[in-house]
Specification:
Elements: E1 2-5, E2 11-15, E3 24-30, E4 37-48, E5 66-71, H1 79-82, E6 88-94, E7 100-101, E8 108-121, E9 125-136, E10 139-147, E11 151-159, E12 164-177, E13 181-194, E14 201-204, E15 207-211, H2 231-240, E16 256-257, E17 265-273, E18 278-287, E19 291-292, E20 296-298, E21 303-306, E22 314-315, E23 319-331, E24 342-350, E25 358-361, E26 372-375, E27 380-388
Parallel strand pairs: 7-11
Antiparallel strand pairs: 1-2, 3-4, 4-8, 5-6, 8-9, 9-12, 10-11, 12-13, 13-16, 13-17, 14-15, 17-18, 18-23, 19-22, 20-21, 23-24, 24-27, 25-26
């Protein structure tokens, strides 16, 4: 159960056992009764208790209030023009108001399912193949709603356009080669789509504001009825809030491939256990690229929060890592109390070939759009010692 309170101790909403009902089923079957062919099936519904982060928006003095201004002066202003108040026009911003809550609002849920087949090949090898799917719909969000008296108001509700889904196919092989080598290799293909990635989503490369799991800017495009007497309000809303999606408006490009929707992901891990306490390991990973998109400017929030070309329409270049590790153990004493004590010296080399492929780009629609924002971490070496007794 969960009861959410404001800073004044007022009950905002109260969810009981029935609101969090989460049935889950799983089945494992040994198809040939010898442990060589295993089928696994699973399905579950998972509820999500809300964190305290968004609750401040429902306090009597809800935060995030500001005035906004637009430039109305000359195109090439001098320093004195910029500081002249007459060159700035006040436009509607966020006014202090307590956000409303739909009494029918319910917790977020996610449905997950899995189909997996495991096969043992001889005494030393095994192959696993699985399909994994998840779906979350009608997720909670604060929506901008038309109001005939105030122009607009905000309400917390389950939003029919806010959703996420994931479908992944994975194959994994593991086993030993002789007495010294152990191998684990895997391939994964996935398609992850949604209107929000599920964690914090910044609005620009230089700021932290944006959308989170429970509350954000999605759903803030105010739908104004197309009637003559509301023409001015409609024109303003469709300019100031365009691209944010909303009830009666649609999702406006927010639904699409999410940052972790990687088409091809290959991992290979090799371990060598040698004589005299020597252990060496190599880890290789190939990633076909991460989805990203162009971000459009939203005047009402003065930031780059919209998706004019759709979410996840671009992809970063493919890149790969090869890491290497070498470890040697030395006994501290042959007999006595510390006969089992040892010191291990280890050398790790990350990104052995010092690959510097881009992994992220500037996304907002400014002069820096699509310039490299981040690259792979450069080659690094780490030397460490560990004492065991």
């Amino acid at each position: 159960t969960q009861t959410c309170l404001s800073d004044a101790g007022e009950t905002l909403w109260d969810w009981g056992l029935g609101d969090f009902f989460s049935p889950r089923l799983s089945l494992t079957a040994d198809l040939t009764a010898d442990g060589n062919n295993i089928l696994k099936l699973a399905w579950g519904r998972f509820s999500d208790m809300i964190t305290t982060m968004p609750l401040g928006f429902f306090n009597p003095g809800a935060g995030l209030t500001y005035r906004a201004y637009e430039w109305s002066g000359p195109e090439a202003p001098a320093e004195m023009d910029i500081h002249n108040p007459g060159n700035w026009v006040n436009v509607p911003g966020l006014v202090p108001q307590k956000f409303e809550i739909n009494e029918r609002a319910r917790p977020d849920f996610q449905t997950r399912w899995l189909i997996e087949f495991d096969r043992r090949i001889g005494p030393l090898w095994a192959v696993k193949a699985r399909v994994v799917g998840t779906k979350a719909e009608n997720l909670l969000e604060i929506l901008a709603i038309f109001d005939k008296d105030t122009g607009y108001r905000f309400i917390y509700d389950n939003f029919e356009y806010k959703k996420r889904d994931y479908l992944g196919v994975e194959v994994e092989v593991s086993g030993t080669i002789g007495r010294r080598f152990a191998l684990n290799a895997s391939y994964a293909h996935c398609l992850a789509r949604g209107t929000n990635p599920g964690q914090s989503e910044s609005g620009a490369w230089s700021q932290e504001e944006g959308s989170t799991y429970y509350i954000g800017l999605f759903g803030k495009h105010l739908y104004v009825p197309p009637v003559p007497e509301l023409a001015d309000l409609k024109a303003w809303a469709d300019t100031a809030m365009a691209g944010l999606g909303g009830r009666g408006v649609g999702e406006e490009g927010w639904y699409g491939r999410l940052p972790y929707s990687v088409d091809h992901n290959v991992k290979v891990n090799l371990l060598y256990s040698g004589p005299w306490g020597i252990r060496a390991a190599a880890a290789f990973e190939y990633i076909s690229g991460y989805p990203y998109e162009r971000l459009g400017y939203v005047p009402f929030f003065a930031g780059y929060y919209s998706f004019p070309e759709g979410r996840g329409t671009l992809t970063t270049p493919a890149h790969a890592y090869l890491d290497f590790s070498f470890e040697k153990s030395f006994a501290l004493a042959k007999t006595g109390t510390f006969s089992a004590a040892a010191v291990s010296v280890r050398l790790d080399i990350f990104n052995l070939f010092d690959s510097q492929r881009p992994v992220s780009f500037v996304k907002e629609s400014i002069d820096l759009f699509n310039q490299v924002w981040g690259r792979q971490q450069p080659r690094q070496a780490r030397l460490s010692a560990k004492v065991r007794f």
